[in-house]
From TrEMBL:
UniProt feature, compositional bias: Pro residues: 81-130
Region described as Disordered: spans on this chain: 43-198
Signal peptide annotation: none
Chain segments annotated as transmembrane: none
Organism: Streptomyces caelestis
Name assigned to this protein: Serine/threonine protein phosphatase
Gene3D superfamilies according to UniProt: PPM-type phosphatase domain
Length: 519
């Protein structure tokens, strides 16, 4: 089994500096991908973008004075790369030896006399011969840009340079070049390798970043790059969270939360919640939840189209006096029509992908009035009833359109055995152009006590399948804090593994006036 490359453990996110836990692969605060954090660079010469070199030791620490940083761009600091001359020059005299007058050629010691190298190509630096007693040149000898050395060996004063721009925090670390000495024997010097670019400090980058254009999105990882139309950062290439990866909405007493989960690359669930009033002025709450069929084409579009069409149909029909159960049936039919319309593609598109399934999704909904609860569904998304008084029994109000439900209904398998089978979640009813036959299911109930209606996809009920298990994870204050309770339920599914998209809507019963809900 292949394994990820090992890297040093991080204690905080390099992007937002939030604390991390051992084994984290993504930052829980900003979503930064921790697997792309570059490894700690080796101890190699570092050159900042502005041309200045950080000091390495205090004066006198290495036996040599520290040069003045203001001496110009071509002045090296102690420990920094030494710019070689363009032609062979005389080595410096030993300490205490007389200094010859300028222009006098001083030959090297006899044991170090070497034949003169051929003339170097114009502009190609040639490393100087080593002086007696001087350490051997390192294989990592650096050639500083802009350090001019004349062919005669005299080092002219550096030209006046513009004030260096403030450092952006980006470093260029050059690795050792095996062909550094090529120019010494007449061959062209090898070009340096690509410099590895480290991620910029987001705080420095934020200060230097120009004002963004209008509503241009900024990367959540590096906080510096602009997000392109394809959803990736132009600076660091990090994929940005999609709008539908996590959604929350509260409308009066109704609330819903949807999350992509931990295994899927996108969220194929969708929901619609709303509140309105019947002709007599009594309040009514609506919740619709749809789950895209992953094996179909564009399931995310199917669920979104279905949830919107059903919600709009209900919120338009109920104020006109349509009975809630009839309104629910009509809403499912409207949702099916919206999904079917997605399959109306040009002939050319179908020719290029003739074996693709039409867009499809499941649907489940609830309508709650002052004394009536109506549910409707097609597929395997569910509605649960959880009373406020937990001593009373909870109940599941829908029956799945699935292979497992058919096996149980036919008496061929027990419920535990059927839902443990790998075919359990194969649905037998859905919305889509290739559905066998549209059969909307509706049912009405008149609970005799207050409670909360849980409308959810299988991404939640897979982790609390029975009514009692669902009642055990619904917070006790769900009827008065529906948004908080919906977040808790989504968190329960994510803690359980988050293998699927997770969507849940909570509707208190009986319906309460709009604006009474609280997160």
């Amino acid at each position: 089994m292949s394994q990820m490359p090992q890297q040093a453990a991080l204690t905080k996110c390099p992007s937002c500096e939030e604390p991390l836990e051992s084994g984290d692969r993504f930052c829980g605060a900003c979503g930064y991908d921790l697997s792309v954090v570059p490894a700690r660079p080796r101890d190699e010469p570092t050159i900042a973008l502005n041309g200045s070199v950080p000091s390495q030791a205090p004066p006198g620490a290495g036996g040599s004075p520290v040069p003045d940083a203001s001496a110009g761009r071509g002045t090296p600091a102690q420990g920094a790369p030494v710019p070689p001359p363009a032609a062979p020059v005389s080595p410096p005299p030993a300490q205490g030896a007389p200094v010859p007058p300028p222009g006098t050629q001083v030959p090297p010691p006899a044991e170090q006399v070497t034949p003169a190298p051929p003339p170097a190509a114009p502009g190609v630096p040639v490393p100087p011969p080593a002086a007696q007693g001087a350490p051997a040149p390192s294989s990592r000898t650096e050639v500083a840009r802009g350090s001019g050395v004349s062919a005669e060996g005299a080092v002219p004063p550096p030209p006046a340079a513009a004030a260096p721009a403030p450092s952006s925090g980006v470093r260029f670390d050059r690795r050792a070049q095996p062909e550094e000495g090529a120019a010494a024997v007449g061959r062209p010097a090898a070009q340096p390798d690509e410099y590895p670019l480290q991620a910029p400090d987001p705080r420095v980058a934020a200060e230097q970043r120009p004002a963004a254009d209008g509503d241009a999105a900024v990367c959540v990882a590096c906080r510096a790059g602009r997000v392109d139309d394809d959803g990736y950062c132009e600076n660091c290439g990090h994929a940005q969270p999609r709008e539908r990866d996590h959604m929350e909405q509260e409308c009066g007493p109704v609330a819903a939360v949807s999350d992509r989960g931990l295994r899927h690359h996108r969220n194929e669930d969708a929901f619609t919640v709303g509140a309105t009033a019947l002709p007599d002025g009594s309040p009514v709450s609506v919740a619709i939840v749809c789950d895209g069929v992953s094996s179909a084409t564009r399931p995310d579009e199917a669920s979104l189209a279905a949830s919107r069409a059903a919600g709009e149909s209900l919120l338009a029909a109920l104020p006109r006096g349509t009975h809630p159960q009839a309104a629910m049936h009509d809403a499912i039919v409207a949702a099916a029509d919206a999904v079917n319309a997605l399959a109306d593609e040009p002939e050319a598109a179908r020719e290029h992908a003739p074996h693709q399934n039409a867009p499809a999704c499941t649907i489940v909904g609830a309508v709650v009035t002052a004394g009536l609860l109506v549910v409707g569904w097609v597929g395997d998304s569910r509605v649960y009833w959880v009373p406020v008084d937990r001593s009373a029994p909870a109940a599941r109000l829908t029956e799945d359109d699935s292979w497992a439900a058919q096996m149980v209904a036919a008496g061929l398998m027990g419920e535990a055995e059927a839902y443990a089978d790998h075919r359990a979640h194969a649905i037998t009813g859905w919305l889509g152009a290739d559905a066998y036959e549209l059969e909307p299911h509706t049912a009405s109930f008149k609970p005799d006590r207050p409670g909360v209606v849980v409308v959810c996809t299988d991404g939640l009920w897979n982790y609390a399948e029975s009514a009692d298990e669902m009642a055990g994870v619904v917070p006790a204050d769900a009827a008065v804090r529906p948004l908080h309770a919906a977040r808790v339920l989504v968190g329960h599914a994510l803690d359980g593994g988050g293998h699927d998209n997770v969507t849940v809507a909570l509707v208190p019963f009986p319906a309460v006036p709009q604006g009474a809900g609280s997160a």
